Amino acid sequence: MAKKQKLLHRLFSALLSFLLHGRTRTPAISSRTTATAVPSSPPHPSTLHHHHSSPSTQMAEKLAAARTLVLDVDAGLLLPSSSLFPYFMLVALEAGGYVRGLVLLLLYPIIFCMGGDSDAAVRVMAMVAFCGLRASRFRAGCAVLPKWFMEDVAAEGFEAMRMIGAAGGRRVCVTRRLPRVMVEGFLSEYLGAEAVVGREMKMLWGFYTGLMVEEDEVVLEMKKKIMGECGDAVGFCGSQEFLQHPLSRCCKDIYLVTREDRATWQALPRSKYPKAVVFHDGRLAFRPTAGSTLAMFMWLPFGVALGSARLAVALTVPYRYSTPILAATGMSWRLKAGGERPPLPGADGERGRRRGQMFVCNHRTLIDPVYVSVALDRQVRAVSYSLSRLSELISPIGRTVRLTRDRDADGRAMARLLERGDLVVVCPEGTTCREPYLLRFSPLFAELSDDVVPVGISVETAMFYPTTAGGLKSLDSLYYIVNPRTCYTVQFLERVSTAAVREGKVPSADMANHVQKKMGDALGYSCTMLSRKDKYRMLAGNDGKCSSSPAWRNDNS
After folding, report:
1. Which of 19, 271, 336, 351 is the most buried (most CB within 10 A)?
2. How does pLDDT run across 332-374, given as a tens digit for each residue?
3. DSSP secondary structure code for residue 104 in this structure
4. What radius of gyration, in Å, describes the C-alpha atoms of the chain?
5. Rounded to the nearest 10 degrees, how much is the dihedral formed by the CA atoms of 222, 83, 15, 20?
6. DSSP 403
7. 96 secondary structure, DSSP code
8. Rounded to whole angstroms, how far apart are CA atoms 259 and 274?
9. What pLDDT is recorded for position 268?
10. Residues 179-205 pLDDT 10s
């Protein structure tokens, strides 16, 4: 019975493969993990070595002597437990929309019966995820997928790349199943691969057709480089299927990791990432496996209804009463221990203070000022430059002060708010950052007041990110309130005197860096010198300029 089922599975896969790309799939080599097995005809020119989990001295010497490493991404870099379905679901949802993602989810039973990650199943997933997408606008490969790929990188596979990189060698990554457009950004930007070889998505009139074609010309060109310019090459793989790839024949030695050894591989810790994943885009805050994606679609109708109720409560009920009501629905916030509310203008002990107070907070989501207002139990004035009309309409803190590209004009606008005694909330990073990093602080805030109150902000969401670089920003607040569970943490830090800046004794940039470091130490975040432009160039391919852009970000600071 088992033999009949296996035969039917092979016939179905071959038939579907023929219908999709016009030829039957070449049978794979036996997947038995032995150290001496080589293809029978023609004989493979490489010397095959058995590689254990811990790097051997022999392998280190070979990599040090070689000028090129040919790495099998599918079985030599990613963890063996990594399924390909979530990656295609990310493309379908983030680049194609919820209808496309639902179609892919409904096809999952068929994909599972076809083998999950088999060649035919991958072609079906690629067809659903890519068909009809405009190629020039596709940025999921460099903006969305790298975060999830980095979480699936095996420390043992990365060690091979690190050793060849330390020796000054060339790293050529080969993906046998995934399209090149999905992995190239991750491999080149974050792992330093000099070349990526894989299948191409066929295009027609600038749109993806959903069909994958082999990269024959690129493989041939790369093979000539490896055989000619790059000298001896070493291969690293975790499956004998890699031996069928043309580039494997360029390798003088190939290190094959057995299935048993791959089962013991561990994920690469974030502390050992060669490049930190500071920026990433996309709305999903979870890995979209089939079960998780099904749960998301089942939640959406309830989430929309619950979000509407939450919004109504937030807009109509005072803070002291709305807080417990919203917390009961899963939308909570907390004031971190040790972060007491600072004395405010007009409060006891501050009656002689004429000017307002400036609060400087890191930027996690669009509604950061709302929770600062909730924590203070006072109305605040937020300053922003890219707030949509919808977000401003549903804001419980009233009208937001819009900034322009004129630095002097923006400084005068914020100074007027302080002179009136308002509580002004400013986010000097200029854009949101999801990961535990602080972007460069613009120094303008240090020039407008004698002191500022730093406010550390952190936020947790269960299903959706309420920020985007390439999507519709007007939906940011709505994505936040439809989450099943959210939690904001607010921490008021000790007031920092900035009088020295106004007196000309300390540069404003130095003061901004001081406040940034103080906030980073309190939150446990790393401080960077990355800016808003860096984020948008990486995620959206532009400088992030809007109709009303920030003028208080000084490019020379």
Report:
1. 336
2. 999 987 666 777 765 544 544 567 899 999 999 989 999 999 9
3. H
4. 27
5. -60
6. P
7. I
8. 26
9. 94
10. 999 999 999 999 999 888 888 999 999
Q: Smallest Cα–Cα separation from 149: which of 70, 88, 240? A: 88
Task: Please state, in angstroms and as integers, the Cα–Cα distance from residue 370 to each residue in 95, 101, 381, 413, following that order.
Answer: 30, 33, 10, 20
Per-residue confidence band for 68, with pLDDT thresholds at 50, 70 and 90: confident
Beta bridge partners of 25: none
DSSP states of 262-321: HTT--BPPGGG-SS-------SB-S---HHHHHHHHHHHHHHHHHHHHHHHHHHHS-HHH
> How far apart, in Å, are the Cα atoms of 472 and each of 32, 102, 285?
49, 20, 17
Angle between helices 290-316 and 98-106 (to 10 degrees): 150
Question: Which tops the pLDDT comparison, 315 or 291?
Answer: 291
Q: What pLDDT, on the 0 to 100 scale, is given for residue 282?
A: 94
pLDDT of residue 220: 67
Which region among 218-232, 257-271, 363-377, 538-552 has the lowest average model confidence (pLDDT)? 538-552
Please determine, for residue 50, whether its predicted confidence score (pLDDT) is greater than 70: no
Pairing outcome for strands 251-257 and 233-237: parallel
Cα(324)–Cα(332) distance, integer angstroms: 8
Residue reference for tokens 């060649």: 119
Q: Which residues touch 149 (CB under 8 Å, ≥6 apart)?
A: 78, 87, 183, 186
The dihedral through the CA atoms of 214, 215, 217, 219 has a sign that is negative
Check if the beta carbon of residue 143 is closer than 8 Å to that of residue 135: no
Answer whether the bond into residue 342 is a cis peptide, omega within 30°. no
Cα 542 to Cα 470, 471, 492, 537, distances in angstroms: 10, 13, 34, 5
- SS3 at position 330: coil
Q: Which residues of 413-445 are buried (b: 16+ CB within 10 A; e: fewer)?
A: bbbebbeeebbbbbbbbbbbbbeebbbbbbbbb
> Side chain identity at 430, as an amino acid letter?
G
- Cβ 85 vs Cβ 290: under 8 Å: yes
Phi, psi of 243 (to 5 degrees): -70, -15
CB 236 within 8 A of CB 76: yes
Alpha-carbon gap, residue 64 to 62, rounded angstroms: 5
CA distances, 157 to each of 37, 63, 71, 477 (Å): 21, 13, 9, 40
Residues 6+ apart with CB under 8 A from 1: none
| CA–CA separation, 368 and 269 (whole Å) | 30
Q: Which two tokens stand for residue 357?
A: 């107070």
Q: Rounded to whole angstroms, what are the CA distances from 300 to 305, 307, 446, 460, 463? A: 9, 10, 43, 19, 10
Tens of pLDDT, residue by residue over 272-289, are: 999 999 999 999 999 999
What pLDDT is attached to residue 231? 61
Cα distance between residue 403 and residue 214, in whole Å: 50
